[in-house]
Amino acid sequence: SAILATTALRRFGSEDQKERWLPALVGGTAIATVAFQEASGSWDESGIVLTAVRSPNGTFRLTGEKRFVLDAYAAHLVVVPARAAEGVTLFLIDTSSPGVTIQPMKTIDDTRRLSTMTLDGVEAGVDRVLGGVGSGWGPLQAIADVGRVALCAEMVGGAERALEMCADYARTREQFGRPIGGFQAIQHKCADMLVRVEGARAMTFAAATSLAHGDEDAASDASIAKSWCGEGYRSVTTEGVQIHGGLGFTWELDMHLFYKRAKSSETLLGDARFHRARLADRALGGR
Question: What's the predicted TM-score (pTM) here?
Answer without folding.
Answer: 0.92
